[in-house]
Amino acid sequence: MSILLAAGCTRDELPMVKDCKVTVDFSVKGPDTLTKALLNEWGIVDVNIYFIDKRGNVITHVFSPSPQPVECEIYTGLEYTVYSIANTGRNIDVDSYEELMNLVLHNSYFTTSCVPFASVAGPYLIKKGQNLSLIFTRLVSKVTVTADFSQLNDDVSIDIKEVRLRNIPVSTQPFAINRITRDSQVADGDPYTNPSESNLRNGISFYILENMQGNLLEGNLSQQGKVLPQDSPFAEFCSYLEVQASYVSSDKQGDVTYKYYLGKDNVANFDIERNTLFNLKLFFKGNGGIDENTWRVDVKELLLTL
User: Fold this and answer.
1) Which residues 6+ apart lie within 8 Å of 252 measured at CB?
2) Most Cβ neighbours (<10 Å): which of 29, 164, 171, 238?
3) What CATH number should be reported for the domain holding residue 77?
4) Residues near 266 by Cβ (< 8 Å), separated by ≥ 6?
5) 300: left (phi > 0), else alpha (psi -120 to 50), else beta?
6) 133 and 256 part of one domain
7) CA 281, 30, 26 angle in degrees (round to 5)?
């Protein structure tokens, strides 16, 4: 009978006035930045905070256009889980836990100079005057690309003209695993053109929203084998790095395109998990890999000069 009574409680039985004030402050968890950041990877400029009770009701929602600690009014005697989103530049209203779990944020929301964050904390049975500290996780990963040409043959020269990410998500779910399932959910990233030797030595960085595709090539043990069949639907969903270069050797000249799928390893995994730093070091050896002539190394623009 007590279970039935608890299940029968409604929000109408709550006090008419929220009788508890809670102060919420914020911090960010790593990884540390290893290269110069394009965006502020630690800053918070605005925040949406949601206090949700165990029945999935949004009891209190506060939007603050300031990074300062926020005072929120709630009811005492209830257990809350606290969800928050930072750096969207807008007030985002939701009515329920289910709506929050299904929330999709388009990359056009992220117009501030800071990367977007999300946080989940609790559940808490909150007392009057209590302070809560929310620890934010970045909703993006950072991909830093460097290049090493020191092991090329003496007669080979590779001049990188453009570096970019392709098949990058255009939206994300802050409180659910983000996995691309339609080609309309991806786009090509902006190119970094004509990088200098210093740029390539120190690193070129890009940001990318989460894209969890999992292990798609079980049993593959080589980097060269990390290629999806072009008739596979995953070829349209998995994110990859593309490098366009000008190639010159004693007997060949032209353009070469190098492509590398991202993931947790170099052979089978295609996950790009939020709040992760990917350091990609491209080693160009011998003749620059042009004998591979696969999806990874496109040499159709390369011509014999003899």
Assistant:
1) 290, 302, 303, 304, 305
2) 238
3) 2.60.40.2580
4) 223, 226
5) alpha
6) no
7) 150
Which residue matches tokens 């950072």?
142
Residues in the chain: 306
Section 21-44 average pLDDT: 64
Q: Assess if residue 59 is contained within a domain.
A: yes
Number of neighbouring beta carbons within 10 Å of residue 228: 19
Distance CA 255, CA 261 (A): 20
- The distance from CA 171 to its chain's CA centroid, rounded to whole angstroms, is 10
Residues 228, 292, single domain; the answer is yes
Return the closest-CA partner of residue 164 out of 107, 207, 201. 207
Same domain, 171 and 240: yes
Tens-place pLDDT, residues 42-77: 888 899 999 999 999 999 999 998 878 888 888 888
Mean pLDDT of 106-131: 84
pLDDT of residue 295: 92
Residue 96 has which token pair? 């329920």
39 and 113 Cβ atoms separated by less than 8 Å: yes
- The parent domain of residue 150 ranges over 140-304
- CATH number for the domain that contains residue 283: 2.60.40
DSSP 106-144: EGGG--SSB--EEEEEEEEEPPTT-EEEEEEEESEEEEE
Beta carbons of 116 and 105 less than 8 angstroms apart: yes
Residue 79 domain flag? yes
Exposed / middle / buried, residue 94 (Cβ in 10 Å: 0-12, 13-18, 19+): middle
DSSP letter, residue 236: G
Considering the domain architecture, whether residues 150 and 226 belong to the same structural domain is answered as yes
Task: Tell me which residue has tokens 């939701």.
Answer: 94
